[in-house]
Automatic annotation (TrEMBL):
Source organism of the structure: Hyaloscypha bicolor E
Gene Ontology MF, one: transferase activity
Transmembrane segments: 50-68
Domain of life from the UniProt record: Eukaryota
Protein's UniProt name: Glycosyltransferase family 8 protein
PANTHER family, A to Z: GLYCOGENIN SUBFAMILY MEMBER
Coiled coil: none
């Protein structure tokens, strides 16, 4: 249990998350964190005696020799010296689907499943794609161990026969020395191997789809179009939804990065380091909302609204086409939870200046989980 709570085990996308319980955030006694902070602080204090230019050079040299994870905290990211430079570009404008003939066989949605639970939620997303009349192909990357589960083989046949899913058997990309929750997450990166397609939309299965998003296939060319991990303080891109251009070159880079990945480096960290300078930004409001946003401690939801209008949970929900279940450490929606566990995380109602009680965020959050559970039956 103590192991699980260590900050260095947790992927970057959760480090400064307001949704983490107190004690797991930056104030935790994490030995790795401490070791990482010391040298740069020491450098800064010592360099006080140097002239500005010398200070700059020293800091730059230190930063360049530090692991990428720490460098990303720094505004050097903005310059593209480190970190995802594209984070600072404006989100793309969503084009409309071209009129006339479109060869949809160039495009596919991909998901990956390494467990029967994940396979079941993938199936729910494929069903949603079907319901929203998506026209692109549907690919499911799955791993050989699923074939020994009768539930999984049944779900695979449903996927093929009812939702026209093309199953793609892949080797599980797994690491032993990393946090178990994300140990298989590298597998999703094998989507880059589907080079028979011009463009792919990867969707994480612990999510719900609420509209047709086929237009994303027609975004201007970019190796990766990614949403900002808007809930973090530092610049990071998220990987729970990605618009990708598969290529052998990209796959080679990916494979090398998976090989070298250690604790704290998961699919999202790899995506940031490989594509952070070349990518384009997917607007998070419509395409990358987290369920955790409805429980954010910030009443104004500054990071989410990003200077555009005010937080209005009903409107946000209405605009959202893709919502990701993310209330860590609250379990994923397919897992059973006790009433106590639920009571601990359920969003509170808010009281406005006139004393009116607003429970919309709470109701929306509860409804999202309820819908998911109902869909899984
Ligand atoms: C990529 O796809 C090719 C062709 O289907 C396959 O032979 C190869 O094993 C795949 N590579 C990986 C890493 O999955």
């Amino acid at each position: 249990m103590a192991r699980q709570r260590r900050l260095s085990d947790i992927p970057d996308f959760l480090h400064t998350s307001p949704f983490l319980p107190v004690g797991t955030r930056g104030d935790s006694h994490d030995p790795i964190q401490k070791v990482q902070v010391k040298p740069s602080l020491g450098q800064i204090i010592r360099s006080k005696h140097f002239r500005t230019v010398v200070v700059f050079i020293v800091i730059a040299l230190v930063l360049l020799t530090l692991p990428t994870k720490i460098r990303n905290y720094h505004s050097f990211a903005r310059l593209g010296i480190s970190g995802p430079k594209c984070y600072f570009t404006d989100p793309v404008t969503i084009p409309s689907i071209p009129e006339g003939e479109v060869d949809w066989s160039h495009f596919a949605y991909t998901q990956y499943a390494t467990t029967p639970d994940a396979l079941c939620s993938s199936l729910m997303l494929f069903s949603a794609l079907h319901q929203h009349s998506s026209r692109a192909d549907r690919l499911l990357l799955y791993t050989p161990d699923l074939l020994s589960s009768p539930t999984a083989t049944h779900l695979l046949s449903v996927a093929q026969n009812i939702y026209e899913v093309k199953p793609v058997l892949v080797e599980k990309q797994h690491k032993n020395n990393v946090h178990y929750i994300w140990a298989d997450s590298y597998t999703k990166l094998l989507a880059f191997n589907q080079t028979q397609y011009k463009r792919l939309i990867h969707l994480d299965s612990d999510s719900t789809l609420r509209g047709n998003i086929d237009a994303l296939f027609f975004l201007p060319s970019a190796e990766a179009v990614l949403p900002r991990a808007y809930w973090l303080e530092k610049p990071k891109l998220s990987s729970h939804i990605m618009v990708l251009q598969p290529s052998t070159m990209a796959l080679e880079k990916i494979q090398k990065a998976i090989e070298e990945a250690t604790r704290g480096t998961y699919d999202m960290e790899i995506i940031n380091s490989l594509f952070g300078n070349e990518c384009a930004i997917l607007p998070h409001r419509e395409y990358a909302l987290l369920t955790g946003e409805f429980r954010s401690p910030d009443p104004k939801h500054m990071a989410f609204v990003d200077g555009k209008g005010e937080w209005d949970p009903a409107k946000v929900m209405q605009e959202a086409k893709f919502v990701h279940f993310s209330d860590y450490p609250f379990p994923k929606p397919w897992e059973e939870t006790s009433a106590e566990e639920q009571e601990k995380v359920v969003p509170a109602c808010v009281v406005d200046e006139e004393g009116k009680v607003d429970c919309r965020a709470r109701d929306i959050w509860i409804e999202l989980y309820k819908d998911f559970k109902a869909g899984g039956r």
